[in-house]
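Q&A FORM
Asked by: J.P.
Topic: structure of RNHCP domain-containing protein

PROVIDED:
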Amino acid sequence: MNRENKRKMYEKGYYKTHPCAESFTCRVCGRPVVSVGAGSGHRNHCPNCLSSLHLDDEPGDRTADCGGVMDPVAVWVRKNREWAVIHRCRRCGTLHSNRVAADDNPMKLMSIAMKPLCEPPFPLERIEEMTALMGGNGCLNG
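REPLIED BY: S.T.
REPLY: Here is the structure written out as C-alpha coordinates.
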Protein backbone atom coordinates (compact mmCIF):
# COMPACT_ATOMS: atom_id res chain seq x y z
CA MET A 1 0.00 0.00 0.00
CA ASN A 2 1.50 3.33 -0.97
CA ARG A 3 1.84 6.19 1.51
CA GLU A 4 -1.04 8.23 0.03
CA ASN A 5 -3.52 5.34 0.25
CA LYS A 6 -2.37 4.56 3.80
CA ARG A 7 -2.84 8.21 4.83
CA LYS A 8 -6.36 8.24 3.36
CA MET A 9 -7.23 4.99 5.13
CA TYR A 10 -6.41 6.45 8.54
CA GLU A 11 -8.15 9.80 8.03
CA LYS A 12 -10.88 10.52 10.55
CA GLY A 13 -14.15 9.01 9.38
CA TYR A 14 -12.60 6.93 6.59
CA TYR A 15 -14.42 3.77 7.65
CA LYS A 16 -17.77 5.59 7.79
CA THR A 17 -17.76 6.04 4.04
CA HIS A 18 -15.50 3.23 2.81
CA PRO A 19 -16.08 -0.50 3.11
CA CYS A 20 -13.69 -2.38 5.35
CA ALA A 21 -12.58 -5.44 3.39
CA GLU A 22 -9.79 -6.34 5.82
CA SER A 23 -9.86 -9.77 7.42
CA PHE A 24 -8.69 -10.40 10.97
CA THR A 25 -8.46 -13.12 13.59
CA CYS A 26 -10.95 -12.88 16.46
CA ARG A 27 -9.16 -12.15 19.74
CA VAL A 28 -11.75 -14.14 21.68
CA CYS A 29 -12.43 -17.35 19.73
CA GLY A 30 -9.43 -17.28 17.38
CA ARG A 31 -11.42 -17.82 14.18
CA PRO A 32 -10.64 -15.93 10.99
CA VAL A 33 -13.15 -13.14 10.25
CA VAL A 34 -13.72 -11.94 6.69
CA SER A 35 -16.06 -9.24 5.41
CA VAL A 36 -17.63 -11.56 2.80
CA GLY A 37 -21.04 -12.75 3.98
CA ALA A 38 -21.71 -9.89 6.40
CA GLY A 39 -24.36 -8.37 4.16
CA SER A 40 -22.62 -4.98 4.18
CA GLY A 41 -19.14 -3.59 3.66
CA HIS A 42 -18.65 -2.98 7.36
CA ARG A 43 -17.61 -6.01 9.41
CA ASN A 44 -17.12 -4.94 13.03
CA HIS A 45 -17.56 -8.13 15.05
CA CYS A 46 -16.89 -11.85 14.86
CA PRO A 47 -19.80 -13.79 13.32
CA ASN A 48 -19.02 -16.80 15.51
CA CYS A 49 -18.76 -15.40 19.07
CA LEU A 50 -20.09 -11.87 18.26
CA SER A 51 -17.16 -10.21 20.08
CA SER A 52 -15.67 -6.97 18.82
CA LEU A 53 -12.83 -4.58 19.65
CA HIS A 54 -13.15 -1.07 21.07
CA LEU A 55 -11.70 0.86 18.12
CA ASP A 56 -14.28 3.62 17.58
CA ASP A 57 -15.67 6.45 19.69
CA GLU A 58 -18.20 7.14 16.92
CA PRO A 59 -18.97 4.47 14.30
CA GLY A 60 -16.12 4.26 11.81
CA ASP A 61 -13.85 6.95 13.30
CA ARG A 62 -11.14 4.58 14.70
CA THR A 63 -10.28 7.14 17.42
CA ALA A 64 -10.76 5.05 20.57
CA ASP A 65 -7.55 4.68 22.56
CA CYS A 66 -8.88 1.72 24.56
CA GLY A 67 -8.57 -1.26 22.19
CA GLY A 68 -10.32 -3.56 24.69
CA VAL A 69 -12.44 -6.58 23.83
CA MET A 70 -16.14 -5.74 23.42
CA ASP A 71 -18.36 -8.55 24.72
CA PRO A 72 -21.90 -9.05 23.35
CA VAL A 73 -24.18 -8.45 26.35
CA ALA A 74 -27.65 -7.89 24.85
CA VAL A 75 -29.65 -7.59 21.65
CA TRP A 76 -32.37 -5.11 20.77
CA VAL A 77 -34.70 -4.47 17.85
CA ARG A 78 -34.45 -1.17 16.01
CA LYS A 79 -37.45 0.75 14.62
CA ASN A 80 -37.04 -0.93 11.23
CA ARG A 81 -37.23 -4.38 12.93
CA GLU A 82 -33.51 -4.91 12.39
CA TRP A 83 -31.65 -6.58 15.25
CA ALA A 84 -28.56 -5.02 16.81
CA VAL A 85 -26.05 -6.31 19.37
CA ILE A 86 -25.07 -4.27 22.42
CA HIS A 87 -21.35 -4.64 23.15
CA ARG A 88 -19.66 -3.68 26.44
CA CYS A 89 -15.91 -3.07 26.63
CA ARG A 90 -14.12 -5.27 29.16
CA ARG A 91 -11.51 -2.59 29.77
CA CYS A 92 -13.47 0.66 30.11
CA GLY A 93 -17.15 -0.38 30.21
CA THR A 94 -18.22 1.63 27.15
CA LEU A 95 -21.42 0.40 25.45
CA HIS A 96 -21.89 0.35 21.66
CA SER A 97 -24.66 -0.93 19.41
CA ASN A 98 -23.81 -2.78 16.18
CA ARG A 99 -26.10 -4.11 13.46
CA VAL A 100 -26.47 -7.85 13.29
CA ALA A 101 -24.67 -9.18 10.22
CA ALA A 102 -26.21 -11.65 7.78
CA ASP A 103 -23.79 -14.42 8.76
CA ASP A 104 -23.91 -13.98 12.56
CA ASN A 105 -24.33 -17.13 14.64
CA PRO A 106 -28.13 -17.40 15.17
CA MET A 107 -27.76 -19.63 18.24
CA LYS A 108 -25.45 -17.11 19.92
CA LEU A 109 -27.90 -14.29 19.10
CA MET A 110 -30.84 -16.24 20.54
CA SER A 111 -28.89 -17.20 23.66
CA ILE A 112 -28.09 -13.53 24.32
CA ALA A 113 -31.74 -12.56 23.68
CA MET A 114 -33.07 -15.28 26.02
CA LYS A 115 -30.65 -14.67 28.90
CA PRO A 116 -32.91 -12.19 30.79
CA LEU A 117 -35.81 -14.65 30.60
CA CYS A 118 -33.66 -17.56 31.76
CA GLU A 119 -32.10 -15.61 34.61
CA PRO A 120 -34.82 -13.36 36.06
CA PRO A 121 -33.88 -10.96 38.89
CA PHE A 122 -36.21 -12.79 41.29
CA PRO A 123 -36.82 -16.43 42.24
CA LEU A 124 -39.39 -18.01 39.91
CA GLU A 125 -40.89 -19.82 42.90
CA ARG A 126 -42.18 -16.43 44.13
CA ILE A 127 -44.03 -15.45 40.95
CA GLU A 128 -47.48 -16.35 42.35
CA GLU A 129 -46.79 -14.34 45.50
CA MET A 130 -45.58 -11.35 43.46
CA THR A 131 -48.62 -11.54 41.17
CA ALA A 132 -50.89 -11.36 44.23
CA LEU A 133 -48.93 -8.41 45.61
CA MET A 134 -49.47 -6.53 42.34
CA GLY A 135 -53.24 -6.86 42.65
CA GLY A 136 -53.76 -10.10 40.78
CA ASN A 137 -55.43 -13.12 42.31
CA GLY A 138 -52.10 -14.95 42.44
CA CYS A 139 -53.38 -17.82 40.30
CA LEU A 140 -51.21 -18.64 37.32
CA ASN A 141 -53.77 -20.98 35.72
CA GLY A 142 -56.16 -18.23 34.73
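FOLLOW-UP: The chain has a mean pLDDT of 80.
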